[in-house]
UniProtKB/TrEMBL annotation:
Pfam families per record: Lactamase_B, Rhodanese
PROSITE patterns named among the record's database cross-references: RHODANESE_3
Protein's UniProt name: MBL fold metallo-hydrolase
Domain of life of the organism encoding this protein: Bacteria
Keywords, comma-separated and alphabetical: Metal-binding
Domain Rhodanese: 269-360, 374-462
Amino acid sequence: MNIQQIYTGCLAQGAYYIESKGEVAIIDPLREVEPYIQRAKADNAKIKYIFETHFHADFVSGHITLAKETGASIVYGPLANPSFDAIIAADNQEFKLGDITIKVLHTPGHTMESTTYLLKDEVGRDHAIFSGDTLFLGDVGRPDLAQKAADMTQEDLAGILFDSLRNKIMPLADDVIVYPAHGAGSACGKNMMKETVDTLGNQKKMNYALRADMTKQEFIAEVTEGLLPPPKYFPLNVKMNKEGYEDIGAILERGRTALSPEDFEIAANETGAVVLDVRHQDEFVKGHIPRSIFIGLNGDFAPWVGALLADVKQPILLVAPVGKEKESVIRLSRVGFDGTLGYLKGGFDAWKSAGKDYDKITAVTADEVSEEINANKVPLFDVRKESEYKKEHVVNAINIPLDFLNEQFTEFPKDRIFLLHCEGGYRSVIAASILKARGIHNLIDISEGFSAIKASGIKVTDAVCPTTFK
């Protein structure tokens, strides 16, 4: 028996490759399926099953393409109703894979079709669970994503999740290994550990949601407390996972169309495409195509694209580092953004060499503006998460989290200079690019963000300050 976790940090997502006696199962595969196929070939094995724990909201799974390429059967748990051929397994149904067995444990709550897969080893002992979004390390799946589909409240779903955990998962032995679908950084939970594998016994000790003396009402209250609105692209990804999508090969072929600066400009004007610049933020600050949006590959690229562009049908034109065009298209497709029309051949340097207009972002160090900030002479906007802001922030800073920038951009002044910062410089440049694309140019970015601010002697506090600028 061979179990391999395939963890993608950008999405904080874990897919799984399981092989026994030449037969392979893949659990929650990513959109690009060739690595699974090549791994099976290297093992001289055949992919037999593709197990899906639920209809994912935060990424587009590769189940349909992988089934088409390999002939493997797609398996969902009870209550799933996909628009394509799949085995809808019964609760406790078992599937043989070489010498091992994978048992279906229906664990609704995160969604109503959510299912945990229990792996039994060669002698029939419970070895591991693949818990999807039902159980994370340090947390459980948020119960608010499937309210409309299930015609239930988040409290109803939380109560169902409580029963699933107590009746199906917690009775398992402490030495059972937990393989979750996500880790820290995913928007599918709120309190996940940085580790990606653990034992169930340790989770019973460490995970607040698995306390033995916890009542259902306590569970509901704690699990639903502090839930932020989910990213707007989540329902669109669910729809794609449930109803189907275009093959990634066609998406790559279209997205890797090389466009000269002239053709790129014409395409941008004629299609209304978003010009998405995925270079490093330091390069974007020094020069970029006017009204382009920065979301760099070096950060949490795909989740920020999903949160800020929102509409997966949005046409996109790429400005990418030379050699990173394919990676960019793949990572966009992971969250359902399949509308990449092409990329700027030769990158931004080609744009400049062609004599095209370009824009810049004014950036300063924290030391250069420390006096103005301490004297509160210039508005300072903090685009970190609310939880980061509450923990520690600059005195008088105004918190508008990047996640909600599109809804709150009117709170930024248009008639005076203001400053922007995040933790390390990535998110504030994203914010600056969006504001400039909307015609707000009177901004200055603080390079290196809050880490540099603290080192500069600017006054910080852990007391909550007003969050709107008057």
